[in-house]
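In this supplementary section we document a worked example of the pipeline. Step one takes a protein sequence of length 497 as its only input; no multiple sequence alignment statistics are reported here. Step two produces a three-dimensional model, which step three serialises into structure tokens for compact storage. The input and output of this example are shown verbatim.
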Amino acid sequence: MVNPKSEDWERFGRASKSSASSIVELNQWRSNPHSFENASYYGQILIHRAHTLMLAEEEIISKEDANQIIKGIKMVEQYAENNPKLVEYMSTETALINEIGDIGGKMHIGRSRNDLGHTQRRIYYRDQINRVIESIIEFREKLLLSAEVNLDTIMPGYTHWRQAQPISLAHYLMGHVEAAGRSVHRLEDIYKRTNISPLGSAAFAGTGWPVNRYRTMELLGFDGLLVNSHDGVATIDYYMELSAALAIHMSNLSRLAEDLQIWSSDEFKLIDLNEAYAGTSSIMPQKKNPLILEKVKSYTAECIGAMVSVFTSMKGTSYTNIVDRTMLEPVIIDTVVGSTNVMSGVVQTLVPLKDNMRQSLREGFSTMTDLADSLVRIHNLSFRQAHDIIVYVTIEALKEGKKAEDITSEMITHAAEQVLKQPLTITNDLLKQAIDPILNVKRRKATGGPAPESVQKMIQNQRKQLGEEKKKQFERITHIEEAIILLSKAEYSLSNQ
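The serialised model returned by step three reads:
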């Protein structure tokens, strides 16, 4: 008897190959979402440890009591692994008191669930920002690699889903590389406004205890203080920003998914998608459906919805601690990371159908702008005059069933007579150069253009930028890791006094 877990019976026909690992991972995250309290519980534990250590250092509680509390809270953290009900604060505190006695209640001196909760959120969201940045950096790297091998993959460029001008696949991909770079920069800025500590704000009016807010800030790896205690428990603007940044990034992924889906269609046939990123039909044997691209587009709608929920929950809400705010749930962030990873794989494994791209360019009229430019250069016309001549030529060619490559110098002379009431000539060599798609691309050497050398410069610049992004990412993560090491060392020192 076949074990149902040993085979994926949804993979068959033209999608028999196993789904890409990034799709499997994304599906698992979405099928088993974590609550915010469970996902961020590690942050709550870190706060308990840092706050308790600070209370001892400031001689608000004894070192002996602090040692017992820290040992006890680590035990509760282990219990919570098998009992998710313990992750709420009062349950954690009660479990701690049950473990070590009434001294467990001293952990809450000079603190409220309000500043505890806001600090826990900031710890979680700062770590998730780093996680999203990491996935986008990898996305950018993989698109750069794909661009580098497609510098000479000439294809039609589109506006309004009509052939516009020839470009290269590399040029198109570099547009997404740069867009994703802006997402990284947004997230880096949001991180700065996220990684600040509200701990010590207490309920909202601070505390009469002589707590050392700078010490807990240091032990928890924060870069600064959210100084005003009222603001500390009232604001959620940092994750409002985060929700917007994620929605923008997902919208860019969705636009990439849209283009790839259309280009892979039977009508366009410009690219072929890897089977691992496709599905099939239960009734139509020929189908290889780009289902994951459609899912990424639908997930984008979810992310935009999450952003709207976060924003509208704050409309008209009193500026203090209040529970009618909407959280940016872990599953949304999982979906963003997973979708980014999936789209990395889609681009990395797609196959450009170069012959079809060239044939499409032959059958279209995407080189007409350069033909008009040639008339401007040769005869010193205004661009509008040249534009009108080539409009006439294009209409006549379409009427006669001709392609762009069939346009003759005689047709241009006749059009000029009709439009300008005077004959103009162009040599056959200049005409061929003007309507050659490859030469069209090669001529566009200006900064940002699709010429191979121009795109190569973009790639070089983006590689340099990626290096800077990785360095900043390393510094952020290292700072947090060093803070946790500092906390552990301080606890060890306390326990040996």
